[in-house]
Amino acid sequence: MARKANTGSADAANQGRLKQIALTYKMTRKADPKVGLVVAGVGIVVLGVLLAIGFLIGHPVYLGILGFVLGLLAAAIVFGRRAERAAFGQMEGQPGAAAAVLQNVGRGWTTTPAVAMNRSQDVVHRAVGRAGIVLVAEGNPNRVKPLLAAEKKRMSRVVVDVPVTDIIVGDGEGMVPLKKVRTTMLKLPRVLTGPQVTVANDRLRAMGDLMSNMPLPKGPMPKGMRMPRGGKMR
C-alpha cells in the first residue's frame, strides 16, 4: 500500500511539472513565437555534433547517448532563459512588477510590498535579508527619491546600524532594469547574522507598513458590512 501511495504521489508530481512546463511554454510563445524552433534547434545541433564526433572516433552509441542528454540539458537552459526574458518583458511597466520579483528573490529575504506610495502611484517596496534592508522603488525617478528619503528617515527610528540599499527600477542612468533586480540583490555583501535579520524584521513589523497604517474611513458603516466578533465601534 505504501509503495502504491508513493507511486501515485510521484505520478501526480510529474503530471504537475509537465502541466507547468506546458503552461510556461504557451505563455512564452505568446511573447516569443520562435521559442520552439530555437529550443529544438539547440538540442538537435548538440546531438548532431556529438554524434558526428562519435562516428569519427568509432563510438557513435556512447557519444549519441551523451549528445542526447547534453542536447536536452542545453535545450532546457535556453528555454529557461527565453521564458524568463518573456516573463520580464510582460511584467515590465506593470504596477507591482518589482514586488513580484522580490517575492521570488530566494530564501532568507522577507519582502513587504508597498511600504510607501504617493498620489501618482509611485511605490516603494522593502526587502530584509543578510545584506541588510533593500528599498526597491517603482515609478518616476524624481518622484520616488523623496519617497525613499522619507522611508529611510522613518526606518531610522527603529533600526540602527543596518545598511540600506536603494534600487530604482528602470532603464535610465543609475537605475536597475527589472530583470536585473534579483541578481543585483543577490550580489550584495552579507553583513548581518541571522539573529540580526530577525531583530530588524521584528522592529520594522512593529513600526507597521502603508496598509496597516492606513486610516479607516470615517462615517456610517456601509450596508451589509458586519463587525467582526468582539469588535467595538469607536
UniProtKB/TrEMBL annotation:
InterPro entries, A to Z: DUF4191 (IPR025445)
Species of origin: Streptomyces zaomyceticus
Region (Disordered): 210-234
Pfam families: DUF4191
Residues annotated as transmembrane: 35-55, 61-80
Protein name: DUF4191 domain-containing protein
Keywords: Membrane, Transmembrane, Transmembrane helix
Superkingdom in the source lineage: Bacteria
